[in-house]
């Protein structure tokens, strides 16, 4: 037992002395989280901004314009000239420009023919433009019906349902934690073990009474403490900056951090056994981790991926680690309902260490 604790403390001292590696392995995921979270972190809805030009300046035109100002889903900006409004559309400052022409009230009161309101939009951004045109048409249509005291025979009853409001940054943070666990263990373990083998450190350990199980257990413990601390620090920073909260159980969150660390550490030992030297361990680890960053649901939902990729994605360990962390942090799913994620990560853990025991070499 003393050898186990001595090796664990020695590994932790190595981590502590190598402050540059420690700093950048933590800094990269934090910078990535801050960058993506700041730019698109709250983007869970489409904002609609319209401009209004009231060339009539009458009570009727002001009544119409007031409808847009009172609509909470629309930001309305006044413009004096059409050309200035068109330029705002081209620059992306607004999505639509409504012009209330001169003589609008007179034509409205005469009732000879309907008043026409020119609405300018960006043809190159049809998704938002079509949405805006639909909203504007609905407001104007209701306004017209009110003017003629129109009473519909069929109406709709609005029944609002409060759905789960998850921002992109809420989706992102668990993925960043999963990415950090994968990268630190696969790249870290493979690089360090390969370097020790090349320098003869493992061979000298083998010449002592040290058991391989004690050496691996010490590595696991040290990296669990390091990865657990880093993951919790990322969650804390996300809470302070983006108000991310862990809805579910903290014990479940810690459990999946531990399980994910063990699963990816086993893959790191496999790479360390395959790699002939430290120079080759990095590219091999990168070859494995890079596709998983994009296929494992770290940055994008797995459901958005093509159907032919789904069978591959659903067996990747990072996909299930990201899913388990999101279910725990964002939704608060009980631990017992995450059996699939637990079984898949457990299978990778057992299979990984089993294969690692065959390919691992002391020298």
From TrEMBL:
InterPro entries: ABC-2_transporter (IPR052902), ABC2_TM (IPR013525), ABC2_TM_bact-type (IPR047817). The chain crosses the membrane at residues 21-40, 171-193, 214-242, 248-272, 284-302, 342-360. It is a multi-pass membrane protein. Its main location: membrane. The keyword Signal does not apply. Keywords: Membrane, Transmembrane, Transmembrane helix. It comes from the Bacteria. Residues 137-363 form the ABC transmembrane type-2 domain. It is found in: Membrane. Signal peptide: none annotated. PROSITE patterns: ABC_TM2 (PS51012). Pfam families: ABC2_membrane_3 (PF12698). One of its GO terms (molecular function) is ABC-type transporter activity. One of its GO terms (cellular component) is membrane. PANTHER family: DOXORUBICIN RESISTANCE ABC TRANSPORTER PERMEASE PROTEIN DRRC-RELATED (PTHR43027), TRANSPORT PERMEASE PROTEIN (PTHR43027:SF2). This is ABC-2 type transport system permease protein. It comes from Litchfieldia salsa.
